[in-house]
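WARN retry 2 of 3 for item q-0093 after timeout on previous attempt; input resubmitted unchanged.
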Amino acid sequence: MTQGAVAMLKLSILACVLLSWGGQAAAQSLRCGRDFAQVGETKFVIESKCGAPAAKDSFCKPIGIAPSTVGRPPHVACDMVEEWTYKPGIGQFITILQFREGELREMKYGPRQ
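OK item q-0093 returned
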């Protein structure tokens, strides 16, 4: 292989890697006007950027079994999760934001509207 061909191959690989990173960043986002909701932001910041969600829910996500203590049998330990559902508009994916300890930790996507 010539030096020119090797350089082109390296450049092509670099472009593929950069494009795949950009796609992952875009995949984990909710556009709110001219801004984006981002993982790590607080509920206050998200609501100020995106407005009130269409729905809110909370649940206890099991994280393991807590050991027994005196007078108390073993029980399931959990992490409280709050989910906010946004419906961005016709043709857009329903977006579910999951908060733990007041911060956005995960985004999931539902069907298109």
